[in-house]
Task: inverse folding
């Protein structure tokens, strides 16, 4: 048997929708706050290109969250995908990733109420209902309390759906292989899904069907634009991140997944448990989701090498994504394949401008010399 065919399935090629990937290790979306904010939240500096190029051993890279409009921004120096200059900025990144043999989808993102006028050019953050999240925004003026958001009218909801559609079109123009719709972590789509933030009494609130409507309108618009085989969605049914909760996550996300099946999208990317925290949060059955969803299931949150190998061999997931390990181990696939030690990431440099903690983590070959 050749080395390739005897390798664990985690390291073997597969398809995620229309996207052929060289292995089943995915780089999770990671905010790094290193876009060119002064010129309009533009990605694509030499440093940004180098960061993604270094990590192109992943079968699939999911980009850092990229806002679909100026008011969709919730952190300093995150890149956008609504302007022509931003689309141009992404091109050298997707080219470098493809030249290295990997694939990359754009995570298209609207933060909703998790923002502040300091970050949106003065605009009031938006949300399904006038409920402020407990927490603070990180701005150039320091940490500021998250404000009570503007309640979206139905006409404004339709505009946001079109912004997601436009972002997906832009992603394809920029050379991405598809998109991941950010439906997780307490941002705008999740604010509609979960009743901790959605108090609406119109057809976008109340019943589970109504709370899923905004997410599904976005999915339908994006699918119409770029095709279902290039579309995925990130979900986090039970995370308390960004002060969001729901009274019955199994019912909400069970309904959503059944509706996604009829759209035939490529993947769901599931945060199992609390984002970046404990996995054993009750309220949702991930094995149920894996069995019922007809596309690829990408598992996320605190996976070790052994957990990932086991999840793929047992069929509990089609791929596994890694976030923080990819920050500090640009050659993570090699390290997992050869069971080499991992560098630990330094949280002090997660969001700082400049190359430190971004493109200066060594590969195994560099540090073994
Ligand atoms: C963050 O920037 O801290 C962040 C962004 C998006 C997420 C999670 C965390 O989904």
Result:
């Amino acid at each position: 048997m050749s080395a390739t065919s005897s390798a664990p399935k985690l390291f073997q090629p597969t398809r995620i929708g229309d996207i052929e990937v060289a292995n089943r290790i995915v780089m999770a979306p990671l905010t790094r706050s290193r876009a060119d904010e002064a010129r309009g939240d533009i990605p694509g500096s030499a440093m940004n290109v180098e960061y993604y190029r270094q990590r192109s051993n992943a079968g699939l890279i999911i980009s850092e969250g990229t806002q679909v409009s100026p008011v969709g921004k919730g952190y300093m120096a995150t890149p956008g995908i609504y302007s022509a200059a931003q689309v141009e900025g992404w091109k050298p990144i997707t080219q470098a990733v493809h030249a290295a043999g990997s694939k990359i989808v754009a995570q298209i993102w609207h933060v909703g109420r998790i923002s502040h006028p300091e970050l949106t050019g003065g605009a009031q953050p938006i949300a399904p209902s006038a409920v402020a999240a407990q927490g603070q925004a990180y701005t150039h003026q320091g940490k500021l309390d998250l404000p009570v958001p503007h309640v979206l009218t139905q006409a404004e909801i339709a505009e946001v759906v079109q912004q997601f559609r436009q972002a997906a079109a832009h992603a394809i123009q920029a050379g991405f292989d598809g998109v991941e719709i950010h439906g997780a972590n307490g941002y705008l789509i999740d604010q509609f899904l979960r009743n901790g933030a959605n108090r609406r009494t119109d057809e976008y609130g109340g019943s589970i069907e109504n709370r899923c409507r905004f997410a599904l309108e976005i999915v339908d618009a994006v699918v119409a634009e770029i095709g279902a085989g290039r579309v995925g969605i990130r979900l986090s049914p039970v995370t308390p991140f960004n002060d969001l909760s729901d009274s019955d996550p199994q019912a909400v996300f069970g309904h959503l997944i059944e509706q996604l099946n009829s759209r035939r999208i490529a993947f769901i990317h599931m945060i199992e448990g609390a984002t970046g925290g404990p996995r054993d949060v009750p309220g949702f059955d991930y094995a149920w989701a894996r069995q019922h969803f007809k596309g690829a299931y990408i598992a996320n949150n605190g996976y070790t090498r052994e957990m990932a190998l086991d999840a793929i061999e047992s069929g509990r997931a089609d791929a596994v994504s890694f976030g923080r390990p990819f920050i500090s181990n640009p050659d993570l696939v090699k390290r997992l394949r050869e069971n080499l030690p991992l560098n630990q990431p330094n949280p002090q440099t997660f969001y700082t401008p400049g190359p430190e903690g971004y493109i200066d983590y060594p590969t195994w070959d560099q540090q073994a010399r």
Observations:
- The domain at 3-320 is CATH 3.20.20.70 (TIM Barrel).
- The chain is about 35% helix and 15% strand.
- The two ends are 32 Å apart (CA to CA).
